Amino acid sequence: MIRALYTAASGMTAQQANIDNVAHNLANANTAGFKKSRVEFSDLVYDQARVPGAPSSTTGESPIGVETGLGVRVLGMSRDFGRGNLKATNAPLDLAIEGEGFFQVALPSGETGYTRTGSFHLNGEGALVTSDGNLVQPQISIPANATSVTISKAGIVSVNIPGQSSAQQIGTLELATFQNPSGLRASGGNTFLPTSVSGDPQVGAAAEDSRGAIAQGFIEDSNVSVVEEMVNMILGQRAYEANSKVIKAADEMLQQVNTIVR
């Protein structure tokens, strides 16, 4: 059997994963805080009929080998945590991170999730929550009679209360950073969970150490470039098409063999 059939089939499978990833990126081009990902490929094992350096005679060695590659596989999908553009909303509970870091949220599973999406709201008890209703950590509660909310670049939350001459500090938003953000596991809802390769979260005040500052009244857009993804889609489509032509060529070669008459 011609090995090109299986080799080209592995290429088509890999490019299908590539197109799936492009589709996911494009679908989230307008999702606040979304981080794009890219597919990384690796070649498969080789059928080595002769390795370089193999004896070619009693005294000589072959300077080159005979190796037939058996295709490609998807090695992984790496996520790009580059910052998206900041968009002004003027909403007091819309927050963006200028630099590295993640907001912390309490998930229904009991785990702590990490997100770059800072579109927050208040629940019925005045607590700061995400659009999914998950509590922001550390928990911040806004008094019902507060007339305004101010969040500094360092994450200090202050409110103005009628009858008080100065703003009252009610809490501080802390950010988390990771040694290897690409090692985080996506759990949906623009939320990530730590893994053994991401490292433990380093939690602290915003605008300190390597953590970014908090910008109130802004939302971080997706870092997806539509033009770049369209180019990736075209390249993936052409690679898929090229591999399908290899299968067609191999099929025609087998057809010629089958029509040989003794």
Offer a concise description of the structure:
The protein is an alpha+beta fold and 262 residues long. It folds into 2 domains: 113 residues, no CATH class; 134 residues, no CATH class.
Note poorly predicted spans: none
Roughly how much helix do the residues carry, as a percent range?
10-25%
Give the C-alpha Rg: 27 Å
Report how far apart the termini are: 20 Å
> Sheet bearing the most strands, described?
5 strands, antiparallel
* Overall tally of structural domains: 2
Question: What can you see in these coordinates?
Answer:
The protein is α+β, with helices and mostly antiparallel strands and 262 residues long. The protein has 2 domains: 4-81 and 224-258, no CATH class; 86-219, no CATH class. 22% of the residues lie in helices and 30% in strands. It has helices at residues 4-27, 226-258; strands at residues 37-43, 46-50, 66-69, 72-79, 86-88, 95-98, 103-106, 112-115, 121-122, 128-129, 136-137, 148-151, 156-160, 168-172, 174-177, 185-186, 191-193, 202-205, 213-216, 218-220. Strands 11-7-8-17-16 form a 5-stranded antiparallel beta sheet, with no helix packed on it. A 3-stranded antiparallel beta sheet has the order 12-13-14, with no helix packed on it. Strand 9 and strand 10 form a beta hairpin. Helix 1 runs antiparallel to helix 2 (226-258). The radius of gyration is 27 Å and the shape is elongated.
Task: Describe this protein with a few key phrases.
2 domains, alpha+beta, 262 residues, three-stranded antiparallel beta sheet, five-stranded antiparallel beta sheet, elongated
